[in-house]
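hey so i finally got around to running the thing on that chain from the lab meeting. sorry it took forever, my laptop kept dying and i had to restart like 3 times. anyway pasting the input first so we r on the same page abt which one it is
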Amino acid sequence: IFSSLSSQPKNCNAISPQEASRTYDIYASTYDDLDGGSIASSLGIDDARNKLLSLARGNVLEVGVGTGLNLQSYRYCSSPPPKDSYSSNANVSNNYMGDCVTSITLVDISEQMLLQAQSKITFLQNKEVIPKHIPIKIIQADATTQLTQLFGENKFDT
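ok and heres what got predicted. didnt touch it at all, straight out
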């Protein structure tokens, strides 16, 4: 066993963005069963997700949103910001931002994953988990090559 570990490393080829999109499109309708559900809960993934995402603030970018499993774990601002709280680059001022999410941009390469996320957003807005005044953008893009050209730099708080 140890002799195989010491041999020269083999080349690995990552899948292309198109292959990733096709693969995740196939699994989108059942993905929450894999990444969420009772197994994730028993492993402590849900608790870790809730703790981490409760720290998000201001204008949030979530890369690889998938089906939107994280969406119910953010702490959203309960009321919209005052009209004069937006700066010229559309980020909310630190005075308003406080300890809550003021907007969220969701990025994924898979169209089917984003459709699942959109359904989850509608459901969570109807249950008032996500306030309807929170701006939500959904963008299909390749996170490995397109983020800077889409958004520039320093456009997000979290």
